[in-house]
Amino acid sequence: MVRPYAVKWLKGKRKRGAASGAAAAEDAEEEHDEQVEVVEEQEVEEKKRRGEELAAAAAASVPDDRRGTEEGPLEALPGLPIVATQDRRPKQGVIFILERASLRVGRVGKKEHILSADDDANYLKNKGENPAEFRPDIVHQAMLAILDSPLNKAGRLQALYVKTDDGELIDVKPYVRLPRTFKRFCGLMYQLKTQKSIHATGKREKLFRMIKNPVTKHLPVNSRKIGFSYSSEKLVRLQDYIPAVGDDVTLVFVVGAMAHGKIDSDYTDDLISVSNYPLSAACCISRICNVLEQRWNIL
Ligand SMILES: C[S@@+](CC[C@H](N)C(=O)[O-])C[C@H]1O[C@@H](n2cnc3c(N)ncnc32)[C@H](O)[C@@H]1O
């Protein structure tokens, strides 16, 4: 079993030293460590000046209680990191609901953890369960597709709810930075399932929390709930469908985070298919995000 997320993160932070922005720099390196640029001295100076201007503008747009300190930016908060670069000014936004997410806890041997088809197939078969139904990896990929999207970074994700296949409902704050690796993701989800909420150490705000069902209770009154299923007979081009809905409603996208079966469409206003092919949840979400990013000119 993995250590609790906050503990691991702090340990990593201590090792790296308390240099400001260390976490953010590491992330950037992760993504771009192959790209080494040689820049003329003059250009460096110019970039530095522009960077300082942008940083000052960004700091001014962030509410006081969310700003970083001189010691370090927001990513340096102890506990769960959050995405500091996100623009959080209110704009027309969208909501995602992930349906039938498999995040079930089981005790295999002496240890409890989130059960998965890959690691616990024998245990699940012995219990008479179908391993194919235990796919936390689909939930991880789907959440990354939503939270890492430019759409979210531009502040257009209003809320993310995850409905688990054992009847729980999770509220995920859009500015949380999800663990990149599956193992750490499962460690975090285990913490959430057992403790019912997760917040940045020393902060009251809960970044993940279990909330009461039904999910519809948490949606705005003027929301349009659009369910996604390959098996729907209503095949649409998302580029045409979304503008036709209009700007006066909050779009709620309901996507399945399971391997097989259909989403619960009892509460959706529509059930659409967006491709002639069965897509993964992450691919389906990327399609939705791409259309919205083009519509709102998010590059
Ligand atoms: C791995 S699929 C689940 C497979 C399931 N047989 C289905 O089609 O609903 C995960 C989710 O992606 C979405 N999805 C996959 N292909 C799609 C398509 N062609 N059109 C709309 N949504 C799709 C659905 O929400 C689905 O629940």
Topology:
Elements: H1 5-16, H2 22-32, H3 41-61, E1 94-101, E2 105-108, E3 111-114, H4 117-126, H5 136-147, H6 150-153, E4 157-164, E5 169-172, H7 182-195, E6 197-199, E7 206-211, E8 223-228, H8 238-245, E9 250-256, E10 270-272, H9 281-295
The chain binds S-adenosylmethionine.
Question: What does it look like?
Answer:
This protein has 299 residues and is of the alpha/beta class. 36% of the residues lie in helices and 18% in strands. It is built from 9 helices and 10 strands. β4 (157-164) and β5 form a beta hairpin. Bound molecules: S-adenosylmethionine.
Question: Keyphrases for this structure?
Answer:
single chain; 299 residues; alpha/beta; Alpha/beta knot; 8-stranded mixed beta sheet; two-stranded antiparallel ribbon; 9 helices; 36% helix; disordered N terminus; binds S-adenosylmethionine
Brief write-up:
The protein has 299 residues and is an alpha/beta fold. 36% of the residues lie in helices and 18% in strands. β2 and β3 form a beta hairpin.
Shape: globular
Which hetero compounds are present in the coordinates?
Answer: S-adenosylmethionine
* Arrangement of strands in the largest sheet: 6-7-5-4-1-9-8-10
Give the CATH topology of the domain at 95-295. Answer: Alpha/beta knot
What is the CA-CA span between the terminal residues? Answer: 39 Å
CATH architectural label of the domain at 95-295: 3-Layer(aba) Sandwich
Q: How many runs of DSSP E, i.e. beta strands?
A: 10
* Poorly predicted tracts of residues: 1-78
| Number of helices in the DSSP assignment | 9
Oligomer: single chain
Range of strand content: 15-25%
Name of the CATH class of the domain at 95-295: Alpha Beta
Overall pLDDT? 80
**Structure classification:** alpha/beta
CATH superfamily of the domain at 95-295: SPOUT methyltransferase, trefoil knot domain
